[in-house]
Structures are given as structure tokens and as C-alpha cells.
Amino acid sequence: MDVDVIIVGAGPTGLTLATELGSAGVSTVVLERLNEPSGQSKALGLQPRTAELLESRGLLDRVSDAAIQRVPAGHFAGLRLDFSAWDTPHPYMIGIPQVRVEAILEARAADLGAIVLRGHELTEIVQDGAGVVATAGSQRLRGRYLVGCDGGRSTVRELLGIEFPGLDGRLHMAVTDLTLTGPAPTSWSIPEMSPSRSGKGYLAPIGQNVYRFLFYGPEQRDLSRDAPITIGEVDRALAVSFGSEVKASDIRWGSRFTDTSRQVSTYRHGRVLLAGDAAHIHSPMGGQGLNLGMQDAFNLGWKLAAEVKGWAADGLLDTYQTERHPVAARVLANTRAQSVLLMPDEENLALRTIVEELLELPQANKFVAGMMSGLDIHYPLPGDPHPLLGRRLPGLEQRTGRAALLARGNRLRACVAQWSDHIDYVVTQRDLDAEAVLVRPDGYVCWAGSDVASLTQALSLQWVQREASGSSDR
Ligand SMILES: Cc1cc2nc3c(=O)[nH]c(=O)nc-3n(C[C@H](O)[C@H](O)[C@H](O)COP(=O)(O)OP(=O)(O)OC[C@H]3O[C@@H](n4cnc5c(N)ncnc54)[C@H](O)[C@@H]3O)c2cc1C
Fold this sequence. Notes:
It is a single chain. 31% of the residues lie in helices and 25% in strands. It is α+β, with helices and mostly antiparallel strands. A hairpin with a 2-residue loop joins strand 18 and strand 19 (272-274).
């Protein structure tokens, strides 16, 4: 083998995976088609759950320093969500362009030994029972596993003939980064995207007199995906939302997109896996795609590392599918629901008014805020029922991506000795509602209690078989 894991694509998903594998001591090469970073950001925001994960890896300060601002709320189809309904140290969106997140991840991945080969476009994959050979130009690399993180038009998916079923888009939108003349907002607000017949737009400052403008309306619906975005079109859309005195002076970047949603049915194909947009695409409503991809990588990274290092239980890698496929399916569903709430017709407007009123109820806000932020993720882990089982446990430092047995005293310390190469024992004063909890490297609790026998089962990953086969106590 030339390398343990080949990652295709140096977007946020591939680079997060490279950092996770690097911290576990797994040799990794990232093949990236572009000679250098594009300099363009699709995403502008990180959700609370991603902030928690970055904090656990010691990366949140760097991200916060590079951010434009904290946005104290999220949104669902432009309807305000209050994240503080959840117990999280980070109940806000971090407003940061995608390129800055990628730069931070790429630097960390390099520090951890991952090699990013730019100007290397994957063109061929051959796999057998022991490994995968990837060809990118004149470069041929053999790895034990290959992960396709190569975006919505994934070459990996195409080369393997993997279907990408889903629904075609109905909402046609445009996004531009531009400079403006006339009065413009100085801080981010919740997108005002009410589904008026004339369409609406959202404007946010992203740099020195540079703004992100996202808009949609009848004109965009009738234009082809490849039609250039002109100043005239932008000015008409600006006038609808902000009045005719706000005008574009220079368009730096523009793109059209729809709310098409698709998801592969199987994330693993032998020694090849898919993550991020390569596995699922949907509309950007609510700012979830990049977060979903990064969280795929946090879930997959430690499982792949366990396989490579030889401590994985049979079926561990298959739990990537069991756990992450439903999470993305739910995001696809919520983005489709948001599209309905944005469609400009009277019935949808009536529905939107009801949803808006519902979201004023604390429980409804908590439900939707949990769904959009990733804070409500609950993996179906088998075991003795405990409120934390399968759920996140924020506030725990796991810089090197190791699991941790968090315990109120030292009684259980000897239990982890056999697994001390990848599990830490951490004495805590936290109120866990249990003597100890076992936290996986991705920050989810896979055991809670005091019983040594069941702890030993959890430490040896015996929950895997039951979870991978789809059975759970819940
Ligand atoms: C307008 C818009 C706004 C958005 N806003 C948000 C937001 O606010 N929050 C959010 O969470 N998400 C948002 N998203 C979604 C987010 O940008 C994507 O989900 C995210 O980029 C997916 O990351 P990825 O790494 O999986 O794929 P990508 O970012 O697409 O990266 C894939 C990489 O693979 C490379 N590649 C492709 N083919 C090959 C090949 N054959 N060989 C080698 N390399 C290859 C590409 O060059 C690229 O670098 C938005 C999307 C759009 C369109």
C-alpha cells in the first residue's frame, strides 16, 4: 500500500476527514482536481453542532478568529430560530466564508501529516478485497480505502455507477457576491425570504463593501442554469427587496442553483465510501450542507481509523451508513419542506403563516432549532436506556480524536487499561446522571452507567453488531 486512505476532494468534507485520520495516525493522501483553492465560498455559516465538534478538536478559536460575525439565531425558510433552547455553549451560527474554513482545515490536516495533492483529478478507480487503486493523471496510488468527498457531481460516484436518486428542483435561485452603491446592511440578519409573488432576496456583508446576495423570483425561474447573472438582473432583484436606491456596482461571483435533492442509498461500496455532497445534495436553505458533510467526516474518521489500526469490531464501518444516512435524509426532507414554505402561492403563504406562529411556541422552536443545528442528533445505539445514550456530549476536549471514559471517580480506571491506546480515562465533576459515560471520538455517548460487564462490552464495541443490523432497544 502507498497510503492507508485516499480521499478524493479537498472541500470541507475531505479536509475534515483528513484531519480526523491524521490525528489518529492514519496515512492519508487527498487528491484535489483544482490547482489551488477556488477562492469562492458557497457556504457562509457553521451550525452550533459543528462549532461544538471544532471546539473538541481545539479548532474553534481559529475559526472564530477568521469569522465575520456570530449570528445569534438560525432560520427555517427565513423564519427565526432560537438555538438557546438547547443546552450548548454555542447557541449561534458562525458567519464565516467556506474558503476560510477550508484553509484552516487544510493547514491542520498538513500539520497532522496528510498530503494534499492539488491539480490531481481522479479519473479511474479499481478495487479488490485488499485495497483500491486510484488514478489521477500520471499518478497511481494504492490505498486500503478510498473516500469520495468530491462534491455533488462526484466522479467517484460516477465511476462506480452509483445511482443518485431524488427529486428535481422547483425553486430557482441565484447567488452573487457583489459590491454595492446605496445604503446596505452592516450586519447579518435572518434572511427575509417571504414568498411574495415578486420574489425576495437576502443580503449579507461578507467583506469590505462586498455582499452576498441570494435571490429568487419569476425572472430566475425562467432563466437557464447557465445564463450569466447580469447587473440588470441583480438590480431588479435588489429593487424588489431593498428599494431602487440600492444597486450593484460590481459582480465578483455568481451562480444559479435549485432545491434539487438527491441521496445515494448506500454510502459504502466495498472499500470505497462516499461522504458530504458526493452522498447527498439539497437546497442550501438554513445553511446545512457543509455542516452535514463535516459531520459525516467526524463520524467516518474514527471508524476508518479503527479499521486501519486493527481495533474495529466487525461491522463498525457499516454503522457509518446506519447512523449518517438517516441524518442526511432528514436534512433533505427539511430543505424540501422549506422550499414549500418559500413557493410564491396563496396556499403556501397560508401554511407559512401557521408555521411562523407555531415557531413562536418554545417546544416547536426547540424541535426545529435542534433539527437545523444538528444538536438533536440521536444515533440508535443499543444499551441500557439513559438520556445521553446516542446523544452528543459537548464541552469535552478530544483534540486527538480519542474516545473517553468520563467518570466521577477512579473505580472504573482499570477497565480501560486494555484499550488505553485509543481510549482516555477522564475524571470529572460533571453531573452526568451516571457514574461514568463512554464518549466516542465523534462526541456521542455509547454507554452510560456503572456496571462493569456492560462497560466492558461497550469498550470492546459490542454495540456495533446490534446497531449495524438495525436492531436497537429504542
Ligand atoms: C449558494 C450556496 C450556499 C450554501 N450555503 C451553505 C451554508 O451557509 N452552510 C452550509 O452548511 N452549507 C451551505 N452550502 C452547501 C455547501 O457549500 C456544500 O454542502 C459543501 O461545499 C459540501 O462540501 P464537500 O466537501 O462535500 O463538497 P465540495 O465543497 O463540492 O468539494 C468537493 C471537492 O472535490 C473536488 N473534486 C471534484 N471532482 C474531483 C475529481 N474527479 N478529482 C479530484 N477532486 C475532485 C472539487 O474540486 C472540490 O474541491 C451552500 C451551497 C450553495 C450552492
